Amino acid sequence: MGRNPLAEFVGVDAAELADxxxxxxxxxxxxxxxxxxxxxxxxxxLTSVPGSSAVVRGGLVVYATPLKHELAGVDDELLAExxxxxxxxxxxxxxGARVTCGATWGVGLTGVAGPDQQDGIEPGVVHxxxxxxxxxxxxxxxxxGNRHQVRAGAVAAALGLLSKLADQQD
Length: 170
What we know:
Layout: H1 5-10, H2 14-26, E1 31-35, H3 41-46, E2 56-61, H4 65-70, H5 76-82, H6 87-101, E3 105-111, E4 125-132, E5 135-142, H7 147-168
Parallel strand pairs: 1-2, 1-3
Antiparallel strand pairs: 3-4, 4-5
Helix pairs in contact: 2-7
GO molecular function: nicotinamide-nucleotide amidase activity
InterPro entries: CinA-like_C, CinA_C
Keywords: Hydrolase
């Protein structure tokens, strides 16, 4: 396995990333993303693996709040009531990515990278949703650090959760 500078840049183990893509490919499973705070970085890291075109269906960068509803199907009442940074938004982003892109797995991320709060939510709060065949999970994590560190940590956590859930689906 050669170096993967993009995986290294965000602190993702290149061999584990290649194993994830290889496992999904072996199972004929696909993945799509709907990303807010990571701005497409999860999809970029996934597609940095040779052969990932058999696995990655696509991704939605839904940085602007209205696009979370318009492109990923997040309930507009949820967004109005709780804002864009909420665990249920991450869950609906994951479902929206999966359905919109016709994938086996959907990964959704929302959070606050900083340096400032958003809607009273501190930087470093990240909600990750993964949905797939008969399984869905949302994880809320806190990541200390600057904007880059929060985003990188969110990518690593999202890929870790996807890997965990995909491994359980044999």
